[in-house]
Amino acid sequence: MWWLITVLSFLLGRVCDGGITSSYIREAAPSTEIPKKDFPPPSGYNAPEQVHITQGDQIGRSVIVSWVTPVNKHPKYMTYWEANDKDGIKRNRVRSKTTTYRYYNYSSGYIHHATINKLEYNTKYMYELGKGNNTRRFWFTTPPEVGPDVPYTFGIIGDLGQTHASNQTLEHYLGSRKGQTVLYLGDFSYADVHPYHDNEKWDTFGRFVEKSNAYEPWIYIAGNHELDFAPEIDEHSLFKPYKHRYHVPFRASQSTSPLWYSIKRASAHIIVLSSYSAFAKYTPQYNWLEQEFAKVNRSETPWLIILLHSPMYNSNNYHFMEGEGMRVVFEPWFVKYKVDLVFSGHVHSYERSERVSNVQYNITDGLSTPVKDPSAPVYITVGDGGNIEGIADSFTEHQPDYSAFREASFGHALLEIKNRTHAFYNWHRNQDNVSVSGDSIWFYNRYWFPKEESTYSSSTKTA
Ligand SMILES: [Fe+2]
Q1: Quick one: which of 41, 7, 322, 18 has its CA closest to 186?
Q2: Quick check: 63 and 140 in contact, CB under 8 A?
Q3: Which of 52, 113, 319, 412 is catalytic?
Q4: Do residues 158 and 382 touch, judged by C-beta distance below 8 A?
Q5: How far is CA 262 from CA 250, 300, 306, 448, in A?
Q6: Ligand 1 center from residue 186 Cα (angstroms)
Q7: How many whole angstroms from 226 Cα to the centroid of ligand 1?
Q8: Do the beta carbons of residue 427 and residue 382 sit within 8 Å?
């Protein structure tokens, strides 16, 4: 086996003190933004646009459908029906709640959110928005009932933006035809890098991702580019565009903020955290997470997954140590509750850690080196969607022991949960054909099968 690892390492790049730093270089699509005019609204007066869906409750029997009508708030409803009712005879109608917002010199269209409840599991539904000639039709499939051995595949995308590279990422993800729900790791439109946080960029982003997000739920988390705090133009309200445009089912998990919440889907319990909200002891997020961990039932949902924007283990010089504050506060719980995986974005490259923890440190003992820990999660950074800020191509020169694999390429990942013990994970770089894997590994569940995984990446064809 050793010779295979040696050859693999030689092919991939160099082996440092830690894991593998891939020196893979092949030309990818540029991370320059696609012009606004190339994301036109759908034709027709007041046609519904920027359609996106997410889970609407904690167990997957509800969907929140959101869309924008640009000039008139009517019609304020959507219709839906089971897809096997081909003519849509038994249609149901749901009213939307409509909101608008202003941001400096920008006024939004009418943003609709409609929650459909009591859906059947594992069922395809059609839905329609608009009326007359401007009616638009979409569909989605509800997940299987929550249970311990339910297979399910999540796509993982972060820091997407709206560049040519972003488009390549999304096309490759859709081309794999495997993902059933996207875990979206924050940093959406990058409107805030434009003068006055040009909020038309939020509209073009919504149109860009509609081809995925109108048909499958994205589980949203907020990144730093959603903060939109700009006192110089009198914009003081944190997360204003994000909170108006993207609704999440936070109350279903007894959260008091849309910035942290949880859902169960198939065999996974997914916890969303906010890197840009208070998390120290006694804060609302801290108190909520303490109670949330105590509720997790691994007999019902074996896979415990955390999503947060700023990675806790990151050996890239970009955003180095930014996640350290939250690591100090939350990592002991991640180990105690045997979290399987922590996905982050923020750093615009790819990195996967060993199972490590650094919880023994206290202010007097000086023990501050991460150590291998079978109860610890694997930390994975997938901030490589391909946004306007470009690639984070400056890894620390000494690859730390905790870092198993890292590469400065754009891409996305897939997590294929097979049953309560095994999940196949695969990261795909945009430069390759969709059947080629950039990094793949079988993960073993920490609660049901806490065996050590092979940490070495295989760069192989997966199909
Ligand atoms: Fe970020």
Answers
A1: 322
A2: yes
A3: 319
A4: yes
A5: 7, 15, 9, 21
A6: 7
A7: 9
A8: yes
Pairwise CA distance, residues 366 & 421, whole Å: 36
C-alpha–C-alpha distance, residues 194 and 200, integer Å: 10
Question: Tens-of-pLDDT digits for all 463 residues of the chain?
Answer: 444 444 444 344 444 456 898 877 666 788 899 999 999 999 999 999 999 999 999 999 999 999 999 999 999 999 999 999 988 789 999 999 999 999 999 999 999 999 999 999 999 999 999 999 999 999 999 999 999 999 999 999 999 999 999 999 999 999 999 999 999 999 999 999 999 999 999 999 999 999 999 999 999 999 999 999 999 999 999 999 999 999 999 999 999 999 999 999 999 999 999 999 999 999 999 999 999 999 999 999 999 999 999 999 999 999 999 999 999 999 999 999 999 999 999 999 999 999 999 998 878 877 789 999 999 999 999 999 999 999 999 999 999 999 999 999 999 999 999 999 999 999 999 999 988 999 999 999 999 999 999 776 555 444 4
Strand pairing of 110-116 and 371-372?
Answer: unpaired
Residue 82: strand, helix, or coil: strand
Closest CA to 182 of 193, 192, 190, 170: 170
For tokens 């109670």, the residue is: 291
- Residues 261 and 248: beta-carbon distance below 8 Å: yes
> Which phi and psi angles does 294 have, rounded to 5°?
-65, -20
CB 225 within 8 A of CB 242: no
Q: What is the rounded distance in angstroms from the CA atom of residue 207 to the CA atom of residue 137?
A: 15
DSSP-assigned beta bridge partners for residue 14: 21
With vertex at residue 384, the alpha carbon angle to CA 380 and CA 387, rounded to the nearest 5 degrees, is 150
Q: Using CA atoms, how far apart are residues 136 and 130, in angstroms rounded to an integer?
A: 6
| DSSP class of 451 | P
| Residue located via tokens 């694999």 | 405
| Angle in degrees, CA 268, 271, 273, rounded to 5 | 160
User: CA-to-CA distance for 120 and 263, rounded, in angstroms?
Assistant: 17
CA of 309 to the centre of ligand 1 (A): 7
How far apart are the CA of 316 and the centre of ligand 1, in A? Answer: 14
Active site residue 309: no
Tokens of 304: 């415990």
Write the CB contacts of 231 (distance below 8 Å, at least 6 apart in sequence): none
Helices (H), 246-365: 284-295, 324-336
Q: 300 - beta bridge partners? A: none
Ligand 1 centroid from CA 346, angstroms? 4
Q: Cα(350) to centroid of ligand 1, in Å?
A: 14
Ligand 1 centre distance from Cα of residue 98 (Å):
29
Give the Å distance between the CA of 117 and the centre of ligand 1. Answer: 33
